Amino acid sequence: MKKGQTTIEQLIHILDDEALCKQLLNANDNCSFLGDGMSKQYYLNEFERLLNSTVFIMKKTHNFSYLSITMKILMKFYLEKMKENPFQFYENVACRNLLDLSKQYPKELEPFQNFLKEIHFEEAADDVGRFYHKQMKKNRILNDFELKDLLNYLMIYKNRKMPHHYLRYLFFVIFEKDRDLDLSSAMYAELFRFLILDLLGQLGWKETVHVVTLEEKKPFIYQGPDIYINESAIKPTLEENMLYFAYLFDLFEKRYKYKSFAHNKYEEIKSKKQYMIKEILGSSYFYENYSYLSIETEIVDQSLINRLRFFEEVAPSLYKEIIEDYEKQIIEAMKAEDPSSDSNRLVLTLEDLTDQTILLSPEIIENRPFLKLEYQTDGRKKKIVELIEAYESELELIFEDEDNEFLASYYEQVILHIPLTISKLSEEFIGLLEYRPRLPRTDRLIERIIQEHFVKEINKSVRNHIITHSELETLLSKFNDYMAKMYELEQKRISKYLSKDPEQWKLYNNHLEMLYRSVSYLSNPDLYESTYLNLTQVLNIKEAKAIQKKVLKNRLTNQKVYIAVLSILILIFSISLFLLGRIIWQYWSASDSYGKIQNQTGQIKPLPVITPDPNRTEFPINDDIPQIDFEPLYEINDEIVAWIRIDDTEINYPIARAEDNEYYLKHLYNKKPNVSGSIFVDYRANQDFSSDNTILYGHNMRNNTMFGSLKKYRKESYFEEHKYIWLITPKATYQYEIYAAYEFDSSKEAHIINFNSEESFQKYLDEIKKKTILSSELEVGPKDHLLTLSTCTDVEPDERFTVVAKRVMTYIVPEENVSN
Amino acid sequence: MKRTIKMMSFFAIAFCSLWLGVASASAANFKIDVINGQDGSGIDYGTITTTKNSCTVTPADSSSSNIITIKSGQQLYVEVNPGCTQTFQVTVNEGYEIDTVLVDRQYVQPSADGVYTFSNITSANSLLSTDTSDVAHSLCIKYKKKGAPSSPNTGDVAYVFPVAGAALLSLGLMIILVRKNKNVKA
Description:
The structure holds two protein chains of two kinds.
Chain A: H1 8-16, H2 18-26, H3 40-61, H4 67-84, H5 87-91, H6 93-104, H7 110-118, H8 127-137, H9 144-156, H10 164-176, H11 185-203, E1 209-212, E2 219-222, H12 238-260, H13 263-281, H14 290-297, H15 302-314, H16 316-336, H17 339-360, H18 369-377, H19 382-388, H20 392-395, H21 401-416, H22 427-432, H23 441-464, H24 469-498, H25 502-520, H26 525-600, E3 618-620, H27 630-636, E4 640-646, E5 652-656, E6 679-681, E7 693-697, H28 716-721, E8 724-728, E9 732-745, H29 758-771, E10 786-792, E11 799-812
Parallel strand pairs in A: 3-11, 5-6, 7-10
Antiparallel strand pairs in A: 1-2, 4-5, 4-8, 6-7, 8-9, 9-11, 10-11
Helix pairs in contact in A: 3-4, 3-6, 4-7, 10-11, 11-12, 11-23, 12-21, 12-24, 14-24, 15-16, 15-17, 15-21, 16-17, 18-19, 24-25, 25-26
Chain B: H1 2-28, E1 30-36, E2 46-51, E3 56-57, E4 67-70, E5 75-80, E6 84-92, E7 96-103, E8 106-108, E9 115-121, E10 135-145, H2 160-185
Parallel strand pairs in B: 1-10
Antiparallel strand pairs in B: 1-5, 2-4, 2-6, 3-5, 6-9, 7-8, 7-10
């Protein structure tokens, strides 16, 4: 075979040869046995291409003549991997296409169906899934970290067929067992969305449902139950699932409330409501509303009612006897205000009676799975368990262990609500649930979930199906809860705007109080409806407008302050930018200007290396010594008197001299204003540099220009390398040798230019010797000429850094060459 | 006749004497130009005093005192006879000190005791003289506030860091403000 030219025939040849296939799969990388030197990966890629091509042809043409090749590739190269990790099946495009095709052409694709059977999807899980599956089977309670991990795992694999019981387990732990995983509201909403989808899957929902997700902020379209359906699970009826749905929502909402508000506040409202319910229902409707009350107060004693129903059916006479006795006890309990103790006694009596009845005729619990479940799990009832073992096959259908406890509660309710009555729940009433005040963003999104996937769907379904009175009550109670939550939110929101106006706040608070009380009259929805409507009308028209006006006013005031502050900041920023630009321009302009004059005067050439002659200090000038034609400089500025250079440093500038020591601080050598200024000689010094001590000044620039580099003389090594100063004047060129550098306070001391006597000069020299930081051996006496370079230190305003040099050589310019 | 001649001789001698006296007097006197802190600020920096000795004439001072005082901001010509020695004492007021001293237009080191003496004045200085007066010497004292720096301020006056800091700070505050406002609107 030639490289890169493997034909289909050659690939089929390998496929047909069992030994070659095995050799290929076991090969490291080198497949020299196939004769063309290509790698193993190359062949695997080629087979994948062939697989995709054959499937594509089948999909487009519905011609299955290539199926045998497809299946050979799948069986030989993919089956083992998919057996290990069945998720790989869903990741393979060809397999997914074949799965679709096999639904349309089950007969033609029978080999593919057989292939599917080889993969055990029921146990399908990757490593993570397998781990949790194991843990749950062991009945181990997962820790918080594991739970979060599992949740993430579900999120990642949400578009795959996932084990149903994972979801149920999570829901059970988080909501039922009240484990606080510190999940975000968005995560709760996402989990809730999962549960809705799971439920819709259970229902065999055919309609398209738009689920708003918090993460995506766009509708997630659920188009069928394929993903979430669990084939092995019991398929409850629509009514059962509706109730389950309500139950899920109830738990979710409770949890959400608990997270959103101060726990105490919620408990306070809850207890207040319970008290009112007891007040309303306690006396005359106690028995009828017992289940309702039990939901509200969470004294869930469904088994009591369960048993009562049971006896009503199986032993009517006994039931009558018990119930009469029970009613008597209830009345007594009401009087004694301790109903729980009586009902507990009743439970015990009923339990004994149930045990005996079931022992006599076990078949009567055939259609009551929760009784069966209870009898299977309770250790005290071993005998009964033995009797009901005959129904084991049916029991297998019940969800796995972790689900039982949780599912029991809702199935119990489902059993209790049969037979059902037709609901009179009106559309208008449900419509009221859609009233939502302005909420924070996350609450609004949660509200949208509630509106779109709870209220509307339940309402629609409720009108088309059967609903119990108890369900209706549940919905009403939910509405009540919901309004309480709204009340809280409203209080929170309004208090922000009305906190500065106690009267307004009081008025508003009263209205809300009335609103809250009105929704508590659940026994009379009409009364509630009219009160509610009146109140909302008042609020909407008067209060809402007042509030809106106030809020608007506040916003406008805030906006004015905002604009004013922002304008000031913009102004500061603009001025700063302008100044910064000006500084940069001045830096650049000074550098450019000095660069030009250095070029013009030829002062870019390197300086000569001349060691001073100790025996003779005056020489006639020669070509090796730096000189300058001052005529062109005088044309620019007739105040230029000399030029200073220190080799290998930035100091290479003309020296100017003015009538004072101020002008050249702010002007360049060409008299243009600039912060860099010029190097200038003290106006008191002799013009011919014959003063005892000639002082030169220059700015200590941050970019090291002018005398900015003088500070480097603090280092001994720098001093050693840059010892000589060249001062070029029209009449002579002077070489100075630096011997001292020091700092001094210019407010206390001063440089002296001409000394009255040799003694005072010597005293001055002695002072320099004391202050200097350099270690020079140069001898300096009162007959010498000094050159002092002075600049600021940028530490203290009056502090100066000074470098002092002694004139060591003079190179005289012949008279005829002197510039005038 | 003799009497007439005698009279004429007397007048001639008297006139000659007078002429010679005046001529000799006007030709022999020199001036010292003294300037005391004349910077136009009106500040009283200090005084310069000198004595009226036998050979001193002070046209501006007609007082009977033997001391001549030159106040701050004044310029006087002190007239002296040839061969005299004239001493000037500078007294600086509290809060000030001598900045520079110019003697015969040359900057000199200020003396420690504030005394400046011109000895044996015998000729005028052509550099200082004008057409109308023979100035032999000049003394100019300049003052400065005590503690004021003796050399110019050669710091980098381009305030890069404060200006850049102000720009960054205002930019940062603007960003915070705009973000906050966005959040409020949201």
